[in-house]
Amino acid sequence: MNEYVIGIDIGSSKIYAAVGKIDSEENLQIMGISSSKCEGLNKGIVIDIESTAKSIEKCKGQLQKMVEQDFNSAYLVVPGGICDLIESKGVVAVSALENTVTHKDKDRAIEASKFISITSDKEIIGVIPQDYVIDECDKIKDPVGMCGNKLEANVKVVTARSSVINNLIKSVEAAGLTVKGLELKPIAAASVVLSQEEKKFGAALVDVGAETIDLSVFSNGKLCYTSIIPFGGKAITNDLSVGLKVSMDEAENMKLKYGTLKKDVSNETFTCNNISGEFIEVKHGFLVDIIEARVSELLEFIKAELEKSGYEKSIERVILVGGGITLFKGIKDVGEEILNKPVRIGLPDYIGAASPLFSNVVGVLKNAIDENNKSSNRKNVVSDFIDDDLYDDEDDEIYAERKGLAKRIKNIFSNLFS
Fold first, then answer.
1. CB burial readout 130-142, b (16+ within 10 A) else e
2. Which of 15, 71, 147, 338 has the highest CB neighbour count under 10 A?
């Protein structure tokens, strides 16, 4: 695979894009990463397609300059917090000779699991297999090649509001790119920041953005819980703006330049412009107090959400990604004190991309390349629940609209969820 692969992460208020390709040793090589602020988003949901498209186009232009090549398609990550995970089961009879489970049987069981009832405003966008059962033998990781009469697939069906997904896709298309595939952010990030042991024995992946916190729990090697907290790092910026009487831009600059949770510099001072344009002197200790108070509150929200998930006791470690609080010195110690769990910052192990800011966009590139390698050996089998044959009345506008969206998504969602 010699062509470039593009990944896009549309966050709370900023868009990240990355370009990569396979090197001579068949490993992903990150060729460049770009970012752009975006005013067309509200808590990770597109509210202005034109504005969002312009930010995506800006990222695309930066990447094209880096590698001196034009792009016409990209892979997109979808926030886990806007999706629902619904437990389901697909049951089929083993159809192969000698009652041996084949890939086709496995695929049929997964497909059967999608026949669930959902509201008219939602779409099934993927399936996350958990395990399989052959006759009376359960907790099977991969049933292919085993013998039996009946195969069951225990899965989590991923659903999301059609309008949210559609607006994400339209924003990318308006920037001159075709969406080749979509993947949940937690699955993307987990592929590059979580170890197999962490996913197996229990880990919480916490993506802190500007306006939202996406919280996901992994156990037994699978994603088992997602939720969204409607607060993020922007709350810290707002506190600094109010507390120091400076503009939001000035507060953001101060946060990035001087922000820390360490109080060893509490006696130092620095100057900045207030809202009247006058220079003021600020004690670093005062800045730290404001930041620490809000970070502690955000961590308390995370702790409460972990308890609400029902998986709190099985979580062995918390991994922080995103840019909302991860870049503050001392965040690990404060996090462990409040969460009562070991905490670390998730860093993709790629040259030029070793930052918690890039976990999602690097992860989707890695998984897209892995998926393409799988597809070269075996046809992709995860299709959309809504098939063309399910609707015969072409005159029904509602059905026609859903059929059109489903057909679109059918060609977009790949087997990245499995």
1. bbbbbeeeeebee
2. 15
Describe the chain by its helix, strand, coil percentages, rounded to 5. Answer: 40, 30, 30
What does pLDDT average to over the chain?
85
Q: Which segments of 120-161 are extended strands (E)?
A: 122-134, 137-140, 150-161
Distance CA 358, CA 9 (A): 9
Residue 144 tokens read as 């292919």
The two beta strands, 203-208 and 317-322, are parallel
DSSP secondary structure letter of residue 25: T
Task: Say yes or no to pLDDT of 204 above 70.
Answer: yes
- pLDDT for 379 beyond 70: no
Q: Is the pLDDT of residue 397 over 80?
A: no
DSSP state of 400: H
Q: Looking at residue 59, what is its pLDDT?
A: 95
Handedness of CA 363, 369, 374, 375 (dihedral sign): positive
Listed in order, strand segments (DSSP E) in 246-384 are: 269-273, 279-283, 317-322, 343-345
Provide the CATH topology of domain 229-345.
Nucleotidyltransferase; domain 5 (3.30.420)
Q: Identify the residue whose tokens are 């699991």.
A: 113
Coil, helix or strand at residue 248 = helix
Give the C-alpha distances (Å, rounded to integers) separating 102 from 89, 128, 155, 417.
18, 19, 18, 20
* Every domain of the chain and the residues it spans: 229-345
Beta bridge pairs of residue 344: 319
Residue 414: what pLDDT? 45
Within 124-229, residue ranges assigned H as helices are 162-174, 185-193, 196-201
278-296 CB burial, b ≥16 within 10 A, e <16: eeeebebeebbebbbebbe
